[in-house]
Amino acid sequence: MNVWRKLGTLMRASAQEPAARLVDANGVRIFEQELRDAEQAIGRSRRELAALMAEKARLARDNDALAEGLQRREQQAREALDRQAEDLALELAGRIAEDEALLARQRQQHDALHRQEIRLRRELRDSARALQRFHGELRLARANQSAERAAGLLRGQARGLRSHLSALDESVATLQRQHAHAGDLEDALHALDQEPGDHNLDDRLEAAGIDTGQLNARKVLDRLKASQAAASSN
Question: Count of H helices and E strands in the chain?
Fold first, then answer.
């Protein structure tokens, strides 16, 4: 049973291998897309921050207006008391109480927005620095990728160049062997020409005045002249 479970685990792992290889082969492209996603997220956060700041500014204006209204109501309540208008002063006091409670809540909300603004500003600042660092990493990754691609091309060209040079070496060696063979053949023919033979021997014998036993035109003519002279003398 344990074996079947391990086989199932192996099959699942094998199914993940093509995806893992695809991820590894496209690491730079994935990193680029992740950077774009992060930049878009930062853009959305900036818009949220802008909306938060606008809401905080509106709330601050409302609080200022409400505080001014409270001061005016308090002044009106004092005047009502001075005029012995107790009922009017009590009504004004009720409104003042309601406005003070509202102002307290709005100030709390303003403070909460202010804290959110500080936190979001800090996060955006940190994210911007991180993005700047990641863009540097991306430039480095692109440079490394280009260097690896160039190195691969150079390795291929070097292999091709070595192949061409090897072929040239083989051709030169073949030409050298052919040239050496032709030289050896020429030397052999020249040596054969220099060796003494029957024809050269007859020439040397004739040059020394020794009869070689071979007939030639001069000898035939001399013999004919001698025969003719002998016949004339008889």
Answer: 5, 0
Instruction: Record the tokens describing residue 177, joined without a space.
Output: 């062997």
Kindly state the DSSP code that residue 1 receives in the 8-state scheme. -
Q: What is the pLDDT of residue 228?
A: 76
How many other C-beta atoms are found inside a 10 Å radius of the C-beta of residue 102?
A: 14
The 10s digit of each residue's pLDDT in 210-220 is: 665 555 666 66
Q: Is the pTM of this model over 0.85?
A: no
CA dihedral 65, 70, 75, 76 (to 10 degrees): 100
**Strands (DSSP E) found in the chain:** none
> How many other CB atoms are there within 10 angstroms of residue 92's CB atom?
21
Q: What angle do CA 142, 147, 150 make, to 5 degrees?
A: 125
Task: Using alpha carbons, list the distances in angstroms from residue 125 to 42, 120, 129, 130, 154.
Answer: 10, 8, 6, 9, 43
Q: Tokens standing for 173?
A: 């060696």
Burial of 66 (0-12, 13-18, 19+ CB in 10 A): middle
What does the pLDDT read at residue 113?
A: 93
Is the pLDDT at 42 greater than 80, yes or no?
A: yes
Gap between the Cα atoms of 144 and 155, Å rounded: 16
Q: Return the higher-pLDDT residue of 180 and 136.
A: 136
d(Cα 13, Cα 66) in Å, to the nearest integer? 66
